[in-house]
Amino acid sequence: MSQAPYKVTPIFDETTLPEAIRNEHRTKAGTWGLLRVLEGAVTLVFIDPAREVAVSKDRPAPIPPEAPHFVKVDGPMRLQVEFYREQPSTQ
């Protein structure tokens, strides 16, 4: 039984990615995010504890509830974010 996201953002590229995603933000309590890169690559930066995660087409990144983070873009890319009520599979 595969879990399905309850919400999915539009697909953004390096020019349409909202400032809100490029700056520090967090998901709500009980909400997991899954950052999926469709083309190119981005860096998912967590604030506390501090760490960076390279995200690419073959390597989506889960975002825990309430974890402060932002997305760093360093070139052409396309991505979207899926939202789940439980920790998502990265497959």
Automatic annotation (TrEMBL):
TehB/YeaR-like domain mapped to chain residues: 7-81
Name assigned to this protein: DUF1971 domain-containing protein
Pfam families, alphabetized: TehB-like
Lineage: Bacteria, Pseudomonadati, Pseudomonadota, Alphaproteobacteria, Sphingomonadales
The species this protein was found in: Novosphingobium rhizovicinum
